Amino acid sequence: MKKLIQTLKNIWSIEELRNKIITTLLLILIYRVGAHIVLPGLDPNKINLSGAKSGALGLIDAFAGGAFSQASIFALGIMPYISASIFMQLMTILVPRMQKIQKEGESGRKKINQWTRYLTVIVTAVQAGAYVAYIRQVNGAALIGAYDPYFWISTTIILTAGTLFVMWLGEKITDKGLGNGTSLIIMVGILARLPQAAIQEWAAKSNRGGGGLLLFIIEIAVLIAIIMGLILLVQGVRKIPVQYAKQIIGNKQFGGARQFLPLKVNGAGVMPIIFAQAIMFLPTLFSYTSFESGKGIAKIFSDPKDAWHMVIYAVIVVAFTFLYTALIFNPKQIAEDLKRNNGFVPGVKPGQPTADYIGAVMDRITLPGAILLAVVGILPGFAMRVNITQGFASFFGGTSLLIMVGVILDTLQQIETQLLMRQYDGLMKSGRIQGRQTVSSTPI
């Protein structure tokens, strides 16, 4: 405890770090206040979008911090921007012209960011129209009659402006605050549901009698164990030894150092789970309420605890893990960089043999990483099968837990870097926080 108090004092004593933390908290507070402002034209007392808290729409509501089910001006949250960013990142990988623009440096990055914003407006406008149709169909009683003729156009404009404002908040947090702003906004939205979900789970277990407390404690212990395992998955690396040739210039020797090339077990990060969920959500593009019947194919796509749902979901996650890793990881480029810097892998010839060796190692570690990622993705379904409420079960795995663990590690790493730069001790007594150090440029 004494060590923790001293660390907090050290953090607060650094003016730059203190200002970053305060700025981040204030901008997040603005976002959370906006998430509770109801759309014009709706009666707050009659809003009942409880169906959006479960099933296929539950994840969207989780990412929006509950704003989706509350018909807030931030109902769509940051997800349209995330979708546009993922699409643009894939284009920079698949389209040669986009690759050329990306390699132009700062000017190329600004162009791509501007196109991403334009695409965000289009995606948000389309989703806003679908959201209006969802409200009319599911909770039309909440509409105020006098405002009905203007509801569609005003809601579309407000939701689009709300998403752009949230995007701006994320960029400001990244520039002036601490950590990745978009990631922090998503994490805060997810964490905002945790207290209510835990209270509901406790209430459900209390109704079962004397053994309810023991079951709840066991669930908390399992959740902590899952988080610890997920930290290992996020930080796990396979180190390939790299030797640099010695160079003697004058009376001084340069190089000759032995270092390691870290290859992440989960190199694709959270992207495979997001892609898998996007595929499972495809039918919702036709209607937000297409899963209401809960039968046949609809049940497979909408019910996370359905056996076929988990099997299909796991297969998609494994497939996308290999696909996305192949897209973002270039062993040939790494081999060329090593050769250019007089580095080599002991026992392996430079050039193509080194690229083949690194690629083979990456393939071997990607398989267990993909399987573990798939297991994490379907854990909420298993949790619901053992009678854990759906809201609390969503924290046992899936995108929500992956994002929370990754963002927290990333933020703690930045804080530790600030402390070490000023010759303070880090956040841990031994070792360093590795963080995600993701290789992708997506906001999350």
From TrEMBL:
It holds the Pfam family SecY. It is a multi-pass membrane protein. InterPro entries: SecY, SecY/SEC61-alpha, SecY_CS, SecY_dom_sf. The chain crosses the membrane at residues 21-39, 73-95, 115-135, 150-170, 177-194, 214-234, 268-288, 308-330, 365-386, 392-412. It comes from the Bacteria. GO terms for biological process: intracellular protein transmembrane transport; protein targeting; protein transport by the Sec complex. It is found in: Cell membrane; Membrane. Its main location: membrane. Keywords: Cell membrane, Membrane, Protein transport, Translocation, Transmembrane, Transmembrane helix, Transport. GO terms for cellular component: plasma membrane. Belongs to the SecY/SEC61-alpha family. The central subunit of the protein translocation channel SecYEG. Consists of two halves formed by TMs 1-5 and 6-10. These two domains form a lateral gate at the front which open onto the bilayer between TMs 2 and 7, and are clamped together by SecE at the back. The channel is closed by both a pore ring composed of hydrophobic SecY resides and a short helix (helix 2A) on the extracellular side of the membrane which forms a plug. The plug probably moves laterally to allow the channel to open. The ring and the pore may move independently. PANTHER family: SECY/SEC61-ALPHA FAMILY MEMBER. Component of the Sec protein translocase complex. Heterotrimer consisting of SecY, SecE and SecG subunits. The heterotrimers can form oligomers, although 1 heterotrimer is thought to be able to translocate proteins. Interacts with the ribosome. Interacts with SecDF, and other proteins may be involved. Interacts with SecA. HAMAP family: SecY. This is Protein translocase subunit SecY. It comes from Flavihumibacter petaseus NBRC 106054.
